[in-house]
């Protein structure tokens, strides 16, 4: 037995040497085989189990490694294997489990703290993540300091982009393209697009310099690394309205076929937003990129939500009503307080001509979520206007208390009521808005109510109300508003002039009294350039017109007043075949059917009488078979203008080819000219 034990120990020692050598060479697959042989000798060897877990992690077998840890929980306690377990859970996208594993560890090592920061970032707990990385940078001094600073800048950029937090200056030296890129993202979150573009251009330059130093890196590798920077550049172009440039850059990135599924999903989504309801075939192809495996682990919650919103809208634009309803309902269940899913559902109902149902859906949401009621009611009012129910739309708008006093809302309501010719309601809107400003004008100071001067918006509303009332004949009501304005600014000559004008229609005596407050003409400093006025276009035109008047015309104007200039009548054009000797047809202005000599169209013509010759010609056989046409029968009377009776022979001249009497000789020339310019073929 002792010999067997000694032999096993020697074999184990040899296997451990093999494991050590393979680990140093990075050959973890071969090291794993040796570790398995050691575990056959001693299945509960803690060191061997740890080495097996590490080898599996290095080979990317995270699920198998986690299985080994969970199978040997008695041997591999949380103190021994906490980091490896949390890392496997993190790589398997079990982020919540990884957080619990880290927090349950008795000792927080530097490795666990690094992983803790990554877990917090994935959970989008940016404030805690920022504190974790600051602590790491403060208490660590090793070769990974640059990576920690990059991660710290990424957290700040995420806060600026998703939480709209103004980033603080971390004082980081932007020596790498990763730091420049993160800084640009933070600037985009603040809306500083031009500065962000410059940062991205600097990041691109640094990236090219960094990668070109490695001789093994090809141009394709550099372009693949620059894809994310170019994607962000295209996003800035899209925000700036340069959609054509953005679309071109997006398509260039897709042609490179980058391995980052998150980047491809974001670019595809942005192309769909550019296409909107146009080019839906391209959008349906691009939407497949957003469904790639692993996308949900690469993007933030807001990015994924935006992609789902656009999928629902695309389904609506492509008339996939059931798919649109399914997607929007799923979004609403995930975010019950979010406004967009309900708006998509309402839009789909409107496309199906179910406006009443859409309004009901929006009303229910407004009742359940008062915080979003204003936006919902604005949409409801728009639907009512589309249906032609302007009065109902006004009622909905007036129910939005927080917007009643806004100048834009007042203007919209007054315009709509004016369109419906409801002047009383329009004036009531003005009155309520003015009263709101009067009530909120006062402020409390040591228990006393102190009134401040009227705000510019308040005064503007009063002036607009006065103008509206004057326009619609409400002079007395307008006078009170104008007096209020004049009291606020007695030096306002324009308001005083309006007030005098209004009083002149109601109380002329009062108008005379107020006119005394007008400044005299002597006090008015009219800065008028007389020479400039005389040389202006209008004045020159008047002088030229005046200069054309002759002396006789001036005398006539002085003696007889204005004399209207007689217009020369142009001679009417006569027809080409006009004959002054022939009396025109008095009924020529009437339609042919209404003329006294109209007999209607000839009926009963047999088809076999129509020959294949020239139009109107007859054949010899038909005349011979006509019994009425004998030698003794008298000839038919010729038509007016013809020379003699027409003989019934094959040489007959068709009526349309006959030359009418009195026709000008140039008729033939005119026909030849027409034929010359005509196209060949019938």
UniProtKB/TrEMBL annotation:
The lineage of its organism: Eukaryota, Metazoa, Chordata, Craniata, Vertebrata. Keywords: Coiled coil, Cytoplasm, Endoplasmic reticulum, Repeat, Ribonucleoprotein, Signal recognition particle, TPR repeat. Residues 576-597 have a biased composition (Basic and acidic residues). Belongs to the SRP72 family. This is Signal recognition particle subunit SRP72. It is found in: Cytoplasm; Endoplasmic reticulum. InterPro entries: Signal_recog_part_SRP72_RNA-bd, SRP72, SRP72_TPR-like, TPR-like_helical_dom_sf, TPR_rpt. Its main location: cytoplasm. It comes from Irena cyanogastra. GO terms for biological process: SRP-dependent cotranslational protein targeting to membrane. Residues 611-645 have a biased composition (Low complexity). Residues 544-682 are annotated as: Disordered. GO terms for cellular component: endoplasmic reticulum; signal recognition particle, endoplasmic reticulum targeting. It comes from the Eukaryota. TPR repeats lie at residues 227-260. Residues 95-150 form a coiled coil.
């Amino acid at each position: 037995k002792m010999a067997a034990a000694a032999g096993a120990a020697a074999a184990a020692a040899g296997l451990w040497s093999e494991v050590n050598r393979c680990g140093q060479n990075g050959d973890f697959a071969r090291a794993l085989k040796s570790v398995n042989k050691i575990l056959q000798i001693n299945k509960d060897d803690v060191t061997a189990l740890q080495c097996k877990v590490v080898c599996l992690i290095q080979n990317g077998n995270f699920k198998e490694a986690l299985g080994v840890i969970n199978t040997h929980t008695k041997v591999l306690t949380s103190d021994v294997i906490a980091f490896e377990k949390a890392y496997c859970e993190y790589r398997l996208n079990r982020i919540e489990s990884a957080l619990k594993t880290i927090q349950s560890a008795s000792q927080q090592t530097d490795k666990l703290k690094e992983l803790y920061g990554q877990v917090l970032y994935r959970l989008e707990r940016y404030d805690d993540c920022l504190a974790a990385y600051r602590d790491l940078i403060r208490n660590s001094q090793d070769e990974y300091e640059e990576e920690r600073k990059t991660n710290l800048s990424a957290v700040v950029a995420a806060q600026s982009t998703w939480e709209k937090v103004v980033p603080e200056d971390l004082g980081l030296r932007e020596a790498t393209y990763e730091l420049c890129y993160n800084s640009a993202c933070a600037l985009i979150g603040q809306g500083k697009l031009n500065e962000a573009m410059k940062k991205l251009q600097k990041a691109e330059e640094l990236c090219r310099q960094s990668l070109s130093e490695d001789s093994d890196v090809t141009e394709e590798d550099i372009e693949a690394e620059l894809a994310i920077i170019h994607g962000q550049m295209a996003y800035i172009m899209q925000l700036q309205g340069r959609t054509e440039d953005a679309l071109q850059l997006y398509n260039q990135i897709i042609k490179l076929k980058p391995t980052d599924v998150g980047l491809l999903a974001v670019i595809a989504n942005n192309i769909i937003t550019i296409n909107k309801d146009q080019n839906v075939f391209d959008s349906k192809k691009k939407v497949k990129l957003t469904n790639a495996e692993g996308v949900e682990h690469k993007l933030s919650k807001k990015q994924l939500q935006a992609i789902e919103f656009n999928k629902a809208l695309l389904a609506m634009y492509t008339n996939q009503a059931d798919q649109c309803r399914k997607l929007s309902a799923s979004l609403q269940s995930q975010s019950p307080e979010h406004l967009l899913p309900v708006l998509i559902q309402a839009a789909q109902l409107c496309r199906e001509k179910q406006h009443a149902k859409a309004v009901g859906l929006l009303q229910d949401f407004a009742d359940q979520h008062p915080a979003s009621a204003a936006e919902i009611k604005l949409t409801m009012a728009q639907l009512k206007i589309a249906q032609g129910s302007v009065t109902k739309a006004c009622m909905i708008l007036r129910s939005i208390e927080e917007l009643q006093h806004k100048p834009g809302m007042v203007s919209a309501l007054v315009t709509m009521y004016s369109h419906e010719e409801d002047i009383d309601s329009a004036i009531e809107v003005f009155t309520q808005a003015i009263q709101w400003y009067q009530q909120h004008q006062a402020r409390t100071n040591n228990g006393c109510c102190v009134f401040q001067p009227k705000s510019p918006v308040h005064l503007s509303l009063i002036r607009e109300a006065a103008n509206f009332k004057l326009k619609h004949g409400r002079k007395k009501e307008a006078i009170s508003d104008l007096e209020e304005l004049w009291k606020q600014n007695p030096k306002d000559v324009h308001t005083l002039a309006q007030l005098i004008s209004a009083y002149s229609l109601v109380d002329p005596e009062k108008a005379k009294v107020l006119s005394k407050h007008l400044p005299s003409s002597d006090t008015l400093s009219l800065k008028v350039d007389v020479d400039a006025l005389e040389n202006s276009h209008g004045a020159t035109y008047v002088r030229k017109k005046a200069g054309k008047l002759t002396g006789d015309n001036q005398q006539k104007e002085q003696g007889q007043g204005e004399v209207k200039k007689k217009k020369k009548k142009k001679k009417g054009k006569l027809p080409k075949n006009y004959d002054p000797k022939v009396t025109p047809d008095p009924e020529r202005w009437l339609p042919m059917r209404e003329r006294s000599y109209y007999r209607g169209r000839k009926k009963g013509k047999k088809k076999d009488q129509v020959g294949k010759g020239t139009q109107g010609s007859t054949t010899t056989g038909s005349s011979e078979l006509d019994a009425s046409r004998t030698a003794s029968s008298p000839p038919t009377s010729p038509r007016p203008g013809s020379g003699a009776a027409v003989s019934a022979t094959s040489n007959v001249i068709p009526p349309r080819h006959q030359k009418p009497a009195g026709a000008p000789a140039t008729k033939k020339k005119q026909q030849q000219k027409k034929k010359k310019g005509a196209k060949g073929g019938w």
